Every structure is written in C-alpha cells, then in structure tokens.
Amino acid sequence: MNSILMVHGITDTGNVFDTMKSYFQNKGFTIYTLDLIPNFGSADLRDLAQQVKQFIDTQFPSEEKIILLGFSMGGLVTRYYLQRLNGLTKVDRYISISAPNNGTNLAYLPPLKGIQQMCPNSEFLQDLNHDVKETLGMINCLIIWTPFDLMILPANSSILGIGKEVDIPILIHKWMLSDQRVFDEINSFLNT
Question: In terms of residue numbers, what domain contains 88?
Fold first, then answer.
C-alpha cells in the first residue's frame, strides 16, 4: 500500500499538490491526482465523488487498497465516496486537510449547487455527518486543520471527532499543502 490519491478543492486542479506530491514521491509513495470537472462549485458534490470512484475503479486493481487524501472541498467529495459509494472497501487510510466537514459560512454567498452543499447544516452534510463514526470510523483517519483558516468559517468546522485530529497554526488555507509540519504529520500517520 503505497499509492496515494490526492483530491483538490474548489477552483483548484491536481497541480495544487505539486509540492506535497514531490515530498511523498521522495518518500517512496506513488502519487495520483485528478482534476474534478467542473471545479468551481457548480456541480453537485455527489457527482464529483462519482469522478473519484471512476478514477479509482479504473486506475487501481480491485484488490489494491490505497491512501485517499482530500483537501478543502475535496475532503467532502472524498468523504462522500468513502461513506456512500463503497469506497471503504478500496481505502486503507484517509487524510482530510482543511475540509468544511461541518460547513463553512462562506458557502451562504454564491448560489451554486456544490457550494450550497458546503453550508452548515446542509442536507448533504447532515447525511454524511449522521453516521460518520460508523462509516469513517472503520478505517484509519487523519484530520488536519488550522485555527486560522479564513475559508472554513468557523475554522473548527473541519473537526469530525474521529481518528487522529491535529490542528497546525498555518495562516493561509492553501499553505496547508506546502507546510513541512503538515507533511511530517502525514508521514508519521502513514508510518504507524
């Protein structure tokens, strides 16, 4: 088990992981990314999760277990894959970085389907959160967040109450993907 699939957030592509990808390739991991389309919040997050499922189903042998990492919106997309699309059978370890697991107040602004699903108490989040311990609790999880996040409001909305949860004081949301402290936490998680 040395394959890691990294799933990006809103308005990003897989290139957002370039620094992290390089670091973990040097540690011996094989890194995969995919570009969610569309990536600007108009698509239903469940449809984006289907893209993750299709990628995993076509890229990895059925018996291979992978490591799945979701950043920001990608954290919700990967959770839907794990919790609702039978992803738990394909994933051994799950890493969530600065995902709006309990919503973000910024999502109230634009009237786009995927963004509205990130509103606190949206139907989408209520569905995922009502059985999070019974589903995600079945695999090893690492939840990383920053108390200074200005994209996830309030910042502690990333907390899920499962697995290992770590807050790292990083000033900018996207810097979570290039900070050595985040890399060290993930590396430690993957080697225990």
Answer: 3-190
